[in-house]
Amino acid sequence: MNYFDLHCDTIYECLKTNQQLDHNDLSIDLYRGQSCSNWVQTFAFWISDDLRGEAAYQDFLRQYDFFQSQLEQNTQLRLYDGKAFSNYCNAMLSVEGGAVLAGKIERIQELSKRGIRMLTLCWNGENEIAGGALSQGRFTKFGKQVVKELEQQGIIVDVSHLNEPSFWELCDFAEKPFIATHSNAKAICNHPRNLTDDQIIEIRNRKGLIGLNFYLDFLAERTPVIMQNLFQHIDYFLNLGCQDVLAIGSDFDGATVPEWLCGIETVANLYENMVEYYGRDIANKIYFENAQNFFSH
Ligand SMILES: [Zn+2]
């Protein structure tokens, strides 16, 4: 089974719990990831809404340096460059929180040099760029410059966490496809972090990607959350014509997930169930091919 995950917070959690990437008690480690044939894992460097200005940037550096140390220590860890090597963890890097820029446009070039492939514009609060899902913020003049520069530097805009007004403002001036790395369908689970039908259709029309989030609160409004709840989201996205758009954005180590989907070692079972329910072609698209096609071009 090939597996391409657009979002996890494992680096932040490793640092918080003083653990390493090769073996740990978190949702993702390199050892358990060996169950995948081709594995592309996006590691997000998460910037808390408590941090702004240089403090936000310094926390990015702390996480980035930790990732570099893991890269040096683990021969089976490599940076993803559009090609997925089997028997490796092919790591794609992103930053979750545009506060990392500390309001400085030149930081984008630096992120690009450090191999960052995606920037989640906001977390839940408001920052120098736009408004997050739990804020009333809007796109700023600086935010518009940021999107233009990201597009020029080839860093993909991630709209997960953006509030809906900011999302539609972005649509007025964004020229390149963008991604919602870890968001589900609001019609199935009414949460401000999930996407409305119009947002889903807009991302589809722009040939972006949407990563299915495993967070309990984004999957269903009631417990217990069962696999059928996740399939309701997939059914919904497929009915909106998202067969070439849908991907995985687990949110592992950043969210509370169902017991039956509690780590990288459990994604094979979900895959087998998806093959049974949707057929192998659709399962392969969601699990790997859609994201791989997006990032290999
Ligand atoms: Zn998130």
Output the keywords.
297 residues, three-stranded parallel beta sheet, Membrane dipeptidase, TIM Barrel, Metal_Hydrolase, binds zinc ion, 9 strands
Can you tell me about this structure?
The chain is built from 10 helices and 9 strands. The protein is an alpha/beta fold. It has a single domain, classed as TIM Barrel, CATH 3.20.20. The strands form 2 sheets. Strands 1, 2, 3, 4, 5 and 6 form a 6-stranded parallel β-sheet that branches. The chain has a 3-stranded parallel β-sheet with strand order 7-8-9. The chain is globular, with a radius of gyration of 18 Å. Bound molecules: zinc ion. InterPro entries: Metal_Hydrolase, Pept_M19. Pfam families: Peptidase_M19 (PF01244). This is Membrane dipeptidase.
CA-based shape: globular
- What share of residues is helical? 25-40%
Largest sheet report: 6 strands, parallel
Task: Output the number of helix runs.
Answer: 10
CATH architecture: Alpha-Beta Barrel
Q: How many distinct domains?
A: 1
- By secondary-structure content and strand pairing, the structural class works out as alpha/beta
Which cofactor or ligand species appear? zinc ion
- CATH class equals Alpha Beta
Strand percentage lies at 5-15%
Q: What order do the SSEs take from the amino end to the carboxyl end, as H and E?
A: EHEHEEHEHEHEHEHHEHH
User: Which whole number gives the mean pLDDT?
Assistant: 98
Organism: Clostridium facile
Protein name: Membrane dipeptidase
Pfam family, one: Peptidase_M19
